[in-house]
Amino acid sequence: MTFIMKINNKIYNVLLGFCAIGVLGYTGCKKYNNPDAVYEDLKRSNVKQRKVLIIGVDGLGGTELQAIAPANFTAMQKNGKYSFTTIKGVSDAGGWVSLLTGTGFAKHQILDDNFERVQDRTGTGHTSITSYRNVLDYITQFKTVKTGVVTPWANLRKYLSNTDLAPVVSSDIAVKDSTIALLNAQTNLGALIVNFRDVEAAGISGGYTASNETYKTSVNKTDGYIGDILAALKARKTYANEDWLVILTSNHGGSSASPTSGFMLAYHPLLSQLELKKTGFTTINFKTSAITAIVPNDNGLYNMADNKDFTVQMQTKFNTSNNYPQFLGKSTLLNSNTMTGWFWMQEGTTWNLEFGGSGNGGGGKQQLQMVGVLANGWHTLTMTVKYVNSTTRTVSAYVDGVFKNSYNVSASKSINTTEPLKVGAFGGESDYYAANLSIFNTALDATTIANNVSLKDITKHPNYSNLIGFWAIDEGAEGILGNKAPGGYNMFLGGQYKWTPLGIDVPAGTTPDPTYVQGAKSFVSTLGDATALSLYWMNIKILNDYGIDGNPFLNQFELEFLK
Question: Is 160 found in the same domain as 96?
Fold first, then answer.
């Protein structure tokens, strides 16, 4: 159950105290192996109080920040772990909610500026709404410190209404001045969130790029504000007894309507410089029927009726030879021979194509088999559907660019269905990896299929203009599979999915990472890391019930700051 409300602090702390006494009494009698770290103060040899400052610069993309290289940010890099490729927030509000709750959009589903979740935005059929607590809520529950937020955005201030200190400001320079005032006056301040918005506004005219002088000037000006804030932080009368972690980030690059990747920097005087990067290939292991990826509502885009041409291609690697799971499709479940739509089925090492239009007055299941093609690693599976006339609609199957078989599915009539486009086992269990799923609104010819089976850059495909969906399935974090086609929709992951690192074991359409080293750490930066890092730094254990997706990655570098 996700924690929604604050629990009574006094009761909680009393119970926690009894638990701590019990644990100490038990472990004092006999030696045991060291338990997993729970981020207690006992891990540190000093008595400084840990505190957190989060500064969010709306609309500042990682690529632009790297190109502009403003002075204070560059100086902070020397004592920081940072990424220029933080997964983008979906909007202004959506990005901030991810940043403050530690959850991705697939969970919190807040997009609009009112910070309210639209029920069942993903169309998954769930009627309940799960709310996720913000980072300040956790901090005030477990720590006796004051919290604050300084932002010119009234809606964000309202969203963080549980904070102790929230001065009303209307400009970025007022944000800077009010932040410095709080740092000077509030000795018990333990967590502070600061938000600058001028950079995003500056990109409206001329673009959100380093080549836009207005945008660049705004970035450097904001960087100056950050430098002033950092100086005020270090000038606090209590600074010698405090241990501040400073997190710089953005809700997204670009605009709220067209966001791009952001950035994140975790700064501390004892940290050494390191850019955090994703290394190797990472994808989803669709291991059970509980793990799925769907397009919740395609507005009819992927309904192909009785006469539309289309092509579907996906690269797969099967780990077991299960029988009869449907592993990709847009179809109702198969009931005897009754079905509506199309799907791909695994039968041992055989790949089956199934079509039917039972719900639309057409025929039931029509099957085409490609025997023994799903074994021995990655394969590229391609299905084309070509309408010829009212009595001929030809489905052809290709494996690794080679034609295998075809059949006529005109008897199915319309294959339209309200069921979503879906990756993952249904109607049975399976265990496979998937990557580079593409859908074209045309039937590709055999030559085009063969020539592009190993294409690494989908934008170079000769039929790119016909592409209505492309999902690389290589994000490495969170629950959204981004659609990289000119048209189409994102997919949402469901179930207890996990991103699986495969290193250089890649499908034909993916370029192996030339920098990959076996056993090397891979870091996929997400906005949720800000919450995870804050709780980790404040010695607040992150429980599974919190639903936090973010990674407290500083726990991988403790030798640098636990002196």
Answer: yes
User: What's the DSSP call for residue 358?
Assistant: G
CATH code (residue 174):
3.40.720.10
489 assigned to some structural domain = yes
Angle of helix 529-537 versus helix 92-101 axis, rounded to 10: 30
Distances (CA, A) of 318 to 376, 432, 497, 510: 8, 4, 17, 17
CA distance 97 to 113: 11
pLDDT in tens, 417-460: 999 999 999 888 999 999 999 999 999 999 999 999 999 999 99
Say if residue 312 is in the same domain as residue 240. no
- C-alpha distances (whole Å) from 269 to each of 112, 230, 234, 264, 562 are 37, 12, 11, 16, 12
Select from 69, 132, 48 the least CA-distant residue to 98: 132
- Tens digit of each residue's pLDDT (9 = 90 or more) over 114-132: 999 876 544 444 445 688 9
SS (H, E, C) 381-416: EEEEEEEEECCEEEEEEEECCEEEEEEECHHHCCCC
What mean pLDDT do residues 40-57 have?
Answer: 76
Dihedral through CA 143, CA 232, CA 264, CA 88, nearest 10? 90
pLDDT, residue 46, reads 55
Domain limits at 51?
9-277+523-561
Strands 49-57 and 242-249: parallel
CA distances from 271 to 62, 231, 267, 318, 531 (A): 21, 18, 7, 42, 19
In a domain, residue 302? The reply is yes
Mapped onto helix, strand or coil, the DSSP state of residue 136 is: helix
Number of structural domains, the chain?
2
**Average pLDDT estimate for 503-526:** 94
The strand pair at 323-331 and 421-426 is best described as antiparallel
288 by Cβ neighbours in 10 Å (0-12 / 13-18 / 19+) ranks as middle
Same domain? For 185 and 303 the reply is no
pLDDT at 29: 33
β-pair partners for 274: 81
Asked if 264 and 82 touch (Cβ cutoff 8 Å), the reply is yes
- For the CA atoms of 60, 61, 66, 70, what is the dihedral angle to 10 degrees? 0
Q: Do both 291 and 308 map to the same domain? A: yes
pLDDT for residue 52 is more than 90? yes
Which among 537, 503, 499 has a CA at the least distance from the CA of 106?
499
Q: pLDDT averaged over the chain?
A: 91
CA 551-553-554 angle, to 5 degrees, is 140
